[in-house]
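Help needed: design a sequence for this.
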């Protein structure tokens, strides 16, 4: 029942694998996919690993793994496979953030393949609610609009993304100043703590305009 896999290993022929798989319980199938995902990851086949993590019910892990290695995977011709894996999540994702991440992955692949019109259609009809993802969506939408000489739309998209990105940076700076203020308070360095709180307040006022 075993045959060479062409890479120095052995495998069970596909027809027998399918029969064995169908006889497993749901829990056993998921465990098998987890093991396959780990093996694929160790071998550097991250798109295949993402597929197995999805089948194991580990959607967030699949997304995180592929996004970490997306440039390498795209460079190795895995764009179409990744699109097929993640596109169903746009409508079937278990949370808004998962759906939005899948949408951006597919939009990037569409841009790579010159499908900027599809990017325009997808990103102008669906709102990205997660701010950090909205920045990336706005950039992609702006690039797609530029490709179609829709320069007013492109400028609007870039401006909106810049505004959100600046706000996110200001929030982070305010939190860092707040953290430093707390550290100074713990050390009874009241003047330094007050100064850091002033900086944090300044950043908050900037966000409010």
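Sure. Designed sequence:
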């Amino acid at each position: 029942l075993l045959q060479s896999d062409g890479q120095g290993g052995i495998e069970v022929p596909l027809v027998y694998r399918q029969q064995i798989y169908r006889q497993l319980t749901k829990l056993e199938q998921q465990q098998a996919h987890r093991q396959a995902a780990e093996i694929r990851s160790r071998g550097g086949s991250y798109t295949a690993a993402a597929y197995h993590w999805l089948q194991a019910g580990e959607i967030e892990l699949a997304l995180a793994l592929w996004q970490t290695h997306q440039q390498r995977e795209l460079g190795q011709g895995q764009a179409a496979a990744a699109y097929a894996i993640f596109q169903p999540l746009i409508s079937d994702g278990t949370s808004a953030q998962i759906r939005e991440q899948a949408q951006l992955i597919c939009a990037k692949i569409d841009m790579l393949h010159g499908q900027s019109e599809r990017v325009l259609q997808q990103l102008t009809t669906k709102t990205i609610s997660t701010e950090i993802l909205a920045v990336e969506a706005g950039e992609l939408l702006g690039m797609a609009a530029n490709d179609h000489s829709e320069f007013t739309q492109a400028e609007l998209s870039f401006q909106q993304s810049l505004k959100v990105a600046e706000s996110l940076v200001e929030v982070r700076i305010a939190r860092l100043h707040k953290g430093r203020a707390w550290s100074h308070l713990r050390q009874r360095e009241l003047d330094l703590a007050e100064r850091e709180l002033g900086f944090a307040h300044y950043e908050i006022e900037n966000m409010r305009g």
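The longest strand covers residues 3-4.
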